[in-house]
Design a protein that fits this description.
By secondary structure, this protein is of the alpha+beta class. The protein has ten helices and eleven strands. Bound molecules: L-homoserine. L-homoserine binds next to helix 5.
Length: 309
C-alpha cells in the first residue's frame, strides 16, 4: 500500500473538570489527510484545503511535526507527501490541530505496516500540539486517535486510558464564529491552584469517571463542574453564562467550555435532549446576533479511521 486516506474526528477536551487529562471524540466534524509514500527522504505537505493560512512547511505544520516525531522514533528516512483537508476550524476549541496530527500519524503508521499501537501514536501527535500551543497536551489527540472517552492518567510516563461510556451519552457543541488560540487561552491561566478548589476538582474527575463506568447519568451531571479553569476562560466567551443556563434548562446533564473555547458543550442523556439543547444554545446566539455552528454527536468510540486510498 502506497497511499491512504484517513479521517480523524474533532474532540471535546477537559470535559469540564479534567483540564489536560480528559477528552472525548465526536462523530464529526473531522480532518482528512491523504498520505502517500515517496522516494525522497522528505515530509512534504502539498496542500491544506479550507485553511489556506496554515503553514505548508512540514516543520511548522502540526501534521508534519507529528509525522517527523514518529519517523524519528523509528529512525526511518521514508519520505511522505501529505494533502490535508480541514473540517475542524482552527481556534474553535474542538481539537483542530489535534485532528490534523491524529490523522497524519494514523495514516503514516498504516503505510509503514502499523509498527505502533493507537495509544503509542498519541506521543507523536502530542508533538503537533506542542507546535500549535506551546504545550504537548494529549487530551485532544488521545480521543481523536483512540476514540471514545480518554483519560491521561500520567504524562510522564505517558499513560492513556480509554474509558467506557454509556451508549445514551450525547454531546451538543456550539461554536460561536470567533477564534480563540489555545496558546492565548493558556496564557490567561494562573500558575497555581487553591487547595480547596483542587479538592473539588479531583472529586469531580473521580466522580465523572465513576459515573461513566457505572452509567450513572446523575453522577455524570453532578461531576461536570469546573471550578478552576471555567471561571477564568468563560470571560473570553460572549454570552457564556446565558448559553450555559439555557443548556441546563433544556435538560443537559452539564455544560462547560470545550477545550480552550470558544466552543461550549453540553452532555445529555439521549438524542432528543441533545437536540433540545441545540435549539436552546442556538436561540441565545441568534438573539446575540453572533454567527455559530452546532454539532450534535454521540461519543465516537472508534476515533481516527482509514476511509480509502
Ligand atoms: N487542555 C487544553 C486546554 C485543550 O484547555 O488548553 C485545548 O483544546
Amino acid at each position: 500500500m502506497n497511499q491512504v486516506k484517513v479521517f480523524a474526528p474533532a474532540t471535546i477536551a477537559n470535559v469540564a473538570c479534567g483540564f489536560d487529562v480528559l477528552g472525548l471524540a465526536l462523530d464529526y466534524p473531522g480532518d482528512e489527510v491523504v498520505v502517500k509514500k515517496t522516494d525522497s527522504h522528505e515530509v512534504v505537505i502539498t496542500a491544506c484545503h479550507n485553511a489556506e493560512n496554515l503553514p505548508l512547511d512540514a516543520d511548522k505544520n502540526v501534521a508534519g511535526v507529528a509525522i517527523k516525531a514518529l519517523l524519528n522514533k523509528l529512525g526511518s528516512k521514508q519520505g511522505f507527501e501529505l494533502e490535508l483537508t480541514k473540517g475542524v476550524k482552527p481556534g474553535s476549541g474542538i481539537g483542530s490541530s489535534a485532528a490534523s496530527s491524529a490523522a497524519a500519524v494514523v495514516a503514516v503508521n498504516e503505510l509503514l505496516g502499523n509498527p505502533f499501537t493507537r495509544k503509542e501514536l498519541v506521543e507523536f501527535a502530542m508533538e503537533g500540539e506542542k507546535c500549535a500551543t506551546g504545550v504537548a497536551h494529549a487530551d485532544n489527540v488521545a480521543p481523536s486517535i483512540c476514540g471514545g472517552f480518554t483519560l491521561v492518567r500520567s504524562y510522564d510516563p505517558l499513560d492513556v486510558i480509554k474509558i467506557d461510556s454509556p451508549d445514551e451519552l450525547w454531546a451538543t457543541v456550539i461554536h460561536p464564529q470567533l477564534e480563540v488560540k489555545t496558546r492565548d487561552a493558556r496564557r490567561v491561566l494562573k500558575g497555581g491552584i487553591d487547595l480547596s478548589k483542587a479538592i473539588t476538582q479531583w472529586g469531580n474527575v473521580g466522580g465523572l469517571v465513576a459515573g461513566l463506568y457505572s452509567k450513572d447519568y446523575d453522577l455524570i451531571g453532578r461531576s461536570l463542574v469546573d471550578v478552576v479553569i471555567e471561571p477564568i476562560r468563560s470571560i473570553l466567551i460572549p454570552g457564556y453564562e446565558k448559553v450555559k443556563k439555557a443548556t441546563i434548562n433544556a435538560g443537559a446533564l452539564g455544560c462547560s467550555i470545550s477545550g480552550s473555547g470558544p466552543s461550549i458543550f453540553g452532555l445529555s442523556r439521549g438524542e432528543e435532549t441533545a437536540l433540545k439543547v441545540k435549539e436552546a444554545m442556538a436561540e441565545v446566539y441568534t438573539q446575540f446576533g453572533v454567527d455559530f455552528e452546532i454539532h450534535v454527536s454521540q461519543v465516537n468510540s472508534e476515533g481516527a479511521k482509514i476511509i480509502g486510498e
